[in-house]
Specification:
Largest sheet: 7 strands, mixed
Number of helices: 11
Radius of gyration: 21 Å
CATH architecture of one domain: 3-Layer(aba) Sandwich
Bound molecules: S-adenosylmethionine
Shape: elongated
Mean pLDDT: 92
Number of strands: 7
Oligomer: single chain
Length: 356
């Protein structure tokens, strides 16, 4: 029986919700202000979507969803760009997106769900706003744990370090131990059985299995790239002037191919572009397709991101897929929460039995 009823704030295309549902959690509502999230979130999860800014949400909006809930869960993966390495030095606390964590805090304090979870980039843990968030929860008598983990240790075929926070009114709570640290899933496990494609092509039955076009120079560059190598492997006349100037110090990991037998590098919102990271296919002369990126984020192969017949915009899809909580990490979060409430219910049951 499902005991936990969840609301997913900043729900995106549903990576976290899909994982929570796989762990048996009843996700009742997802909220996001990006209209592109509605179709993938609702279609694949059978869950209602509300297009609204978290800043405009009232406690009542949430409480009415939890009316008959045994245990309520508020999940909120606020946008991570203000805290990520990629935006280092480009944002400060005046960036409005920092306030979204404070908005999440407001809703926790006003609605007092039994359980809270959040996933974000590890650098968030160093920010004063995070310490404030944890202090506010502890002041409300939540037990809080926060830990940086590698998603690859939880069955995601990708190196992706993330901070996972869990909080509970019921007692101390921890993320379950790694499930895949001895046998991490690799790029080969994830995408080697997909049909081959050329750069700029689209598969006839799965429109998400499509790849970005490559300029003539980038085609020569990927042909010269070795799996796991860098642009330093290329003939000097293929190396861009900016690479020469920076002597590779700043951008050693752009224009690379993935290796078959390792987890993929971290998927960003730009993973479909060969020049944006090590996003080259291990052996085909192209960047990975949108579908391959989604599978590397551990979305099921059949996850639909766009209504049949609707156009596919690479930038939009890159954003939805790259921003997602990997489904398998979401499932580990969900299993941690389930084990926690089951242990609590067992304790309550034995207490009432011994009182009789
Ligand atoms: C890191 S992504 C969340 C990913 C999602 N949890 C998943 O697993 O797929 C952050 C999301 O926050 C949304 N967002 C940003 N500002 C928002 C706001 N003010 N209100 C609601 N959603 C917002 C973005 O549209 C984006 O989808």
């Amino acid at each position: 029986m499902t005991l936990i009823s969840a609301i997913d704030l900043f729900c995106g295309a549903g990576g976290l919700t899909q994982g929570l549902k796989a762990a048996g959690i009843d996700v009742r509502l997802g909220i996001d202000l990006d209209p592109a999230c509605e179709y993938p979130f609702s279609f694949n999860n059978g869950t209602r979507f509300l297009k609204k800014s978290i800043q405009d949400l009232t406690p009542f909006d949430l409480l009415q969803e939890w009316k008959d809930a045994r245990f309520s869960l508020l999940a909120g993966c606020a946008p991570c760009q203000p805290f990520s390495l990629y935006s280092q030095g480009k944002t400060d606390e005046s960036d409005g997106r920092w306030n979204l964590l404070a908005e999440f805090q407001r809703l926790v304090i006003r609605t007092k769900p039994t359980l809270v979870t959040m996933e974000n980039v590890p650098r968030l843990a160093e920010q004063a706003i995070f310490a404030k968030f944890v202090n506010a929860l502890e002041a409300e008598k939540y037990h809080v744990s926060a830990k940086t983990v590698n998603s690859a240790d939880y069955g995601v075929p990708q190196q992706r370090e993330r901070l996972v926070l869990l909080a509970s009114k019921l007692g101390p709570i921890e993320l379950i131990p790694p499930t895949h640290s001895k046998r991490q899933r690799t790029v080969r496990d994830a995408i080697s059985n997909l049909p081959p494609l050329t750069a700029g092509a689209e598969h006839e039955t799965d429109p998400l299995h499509q790849t970005a076009t490559l300029s003539e120079t980038n085609l020569l560059r990927i042909q010269a790239s070795k799996p796991g190598g860098t642009w330093r492997d290329w003939d000097p006349n293929l190396v861009a002037a900016c690479h020469r100037r920076r002597t590779g110090k700043t951008y050693p990991s752009v224009y690379g191919r993935m290796t078959w037998d390792n987890p993929a590098p971290t998927m960003t919102t730009q993973f479909f572009g060969f020049g944006n990271g090590r996003f080259g296919h291990p052996e085909q002369d192209r960047a990975i397709s949108l579908r391959e990126g989604a599978i590397i984020q551990s979305f099921p192969k059949s996850y639909r991101f766009v209504k049949p017949g609707q156009p596919i915009h690479m930038k939009t899809l890159g954003r939805l897929i790259g921003n997602a909580v990997p489904v398998k990490l979401g499932e580990a979060i969900g299993r941690s929460l389930q084990q926690h409430v089951q242990a609590f219910s067992a304790r309550e049951k034995s207490k009432s039995a011994s009182a009789r």
